[in-house]
Amino acid sequence: MRSSTSQSSRQPDAFVLPHYDEVALVLQGGGALGSYQAGVYEGLAEMGVHPDTISGISIGALNTAIIAGNAPENRVAALRGFWGRICHPRDWVGGLGAWMPPLFGMPDFSRKWASVWAAGRALTEGQPGFFSPRVPLPVAGFGKQNPNVVSYYDTAALKETLLEFADFDRINDGDVRVSVGAVNVRTGNLVYFDNTKMRLKPEHFMASGALPPGFPAVEIDGEYYWDGGLVSNTPLTEVLRDADHKDALVFQVDLWSARGNAPGDFFDISARAKDIQYSSRTRAVTSMLADRQKHARFIKELLAHIPADLRRTDALFRLAEEAADGSAINVVHLIYKNKPYEGHYKDYEFSIDTMREHWESGLEDIRDSFSHRAWFDVPSREQGFVTHDVHRLPGRVPKSDRDALILPLAEERKIANGELAIETREPAGESVS
User: What's the CA dihedral at 357, 361, 363, 369 to 10 degrees?
Assistant: First the structure.
């Protein structure tokens, strides 16, 4: 059952990443699932890929602090130390419950029992170095209190853990752009705390992960903030906001899959609702970016019919040429896939065994992605936007992605005229975010 993040079962071949103007890492929120992102980062480090920009929400923001707050050669060790600190080791009850059922021919039940027990410990005990039950617990109807003390748990320990594993001077003065998203409790607006615009402190990262009512709001400069995932759990748009006229490679690491099976009981409903809610707008964002690239290409083709001297002298046409230049965006999408034993509690199941399994899944997925070397070629400005997902079978285009396809204009005309068909059938059992 145990696996180790200190040893690699398969080492990747040497690989030189093509030149991009920007390499970004986008980390979604998802609580205990976040060790999957740590495994992905270990795979990036193996390949010598060091992001210029990192943006995170919730647990993704905490991983962002650990990565950006350490020198490249120390980041994997710091991530391992952070996750080891906030996860519970197996106790004797969980261990006994995990090993007894296999004696009676029920190995699957044993893994589920250990996972359920660990989640129960998180609810009743909290997590070391992260959060603990709030005592006394505020009682509704007996007076109002400030939002930073109205919660089931106290996260004061998280600040000390962040200070231990991340150097905030490096975060603010280093060469990695950092942005983490949180929601202003008063206005309801999603804001990004960006180290190019302000000095970041532990509180900015804690605010990004302050999911109510479990965790308290975090006060920053007189305003209270909650978890950014309440509005958008995927900070891809923030990373690409300034990507016009750039060649950008984005590693987008999601912890929730929008697609899944129909629920069969109340526990399944709870788990499925979380997947849908927190997978957020990933597919909508990529579709929007694809449409933007397509429009830029249409403008470019139309401008080809305008006399060159008119394009040079007319300010409107000059603006149109600037918009038509577009950008080349390559998104390598990594999506955590649920384990058979997991349930609705998977985002607060912080056992050391499960953490290591998530970590190994992330490491294997990024290694598999790097095995497709052609995926990392810089797209042409004509192509504009491409996305790759190691869990999607080659040669298949999910129906949900049909509008996001980036094809040469000549082929788009053939599709419009019915001369070219696109495969939209998904293989049985395939699940994509």
Answer: 180
String of DSSP letters for 137-171 = PP-TTS----TTT-SSEE-HHHHHHHHHH--HHHH
H-type helices in 17-147, by residue range?
A: 35-46, 59-68, 75-86, 92-103, 107-125
Residue 278 has pLDDT above 90, yes or no: no
Q: How many CB atoms within 10 Å of residue 200?
A: 22
Task: Tell me the C-alpha distance between 131 and 129, whole Å.
Answer: 7
DSSP string, 203-231: HHHHHHT--TTTS--EEETTEEEEEGGGT
Counting DSSP H helices and E strands in the chain, the numbers are 15, 11
Q: Do 37 and 334 meet the contact criterion of CB atoms below 8 Å apart? A: no
Six token digits for residue 183: 């929601």
Q: What pLDDT digit, counting tens, does each position of 168-186 carry? A: 999 999 999 999 999 999 9
Q: Are 97 and 114 in contact (CB under 8 A)?
A: yes
Q: Find out whether 172 and 200 touch, Cβ atoms under 8 Å.
A: yes
46/49 Cα distance (integer angstroms): 8
pTM reported for the whole predicted model: 0.84
For 239, the enclosing helix (H) or strand (E) is: helix 236-240
> Which residues 6+ apart lie within 8 Å of 188 measured at CB?
231
> How far are the Cα atoms of 62, 74, 86, 386 from residue 165, in angstroms, in the given order?
10, 10, 12, 35
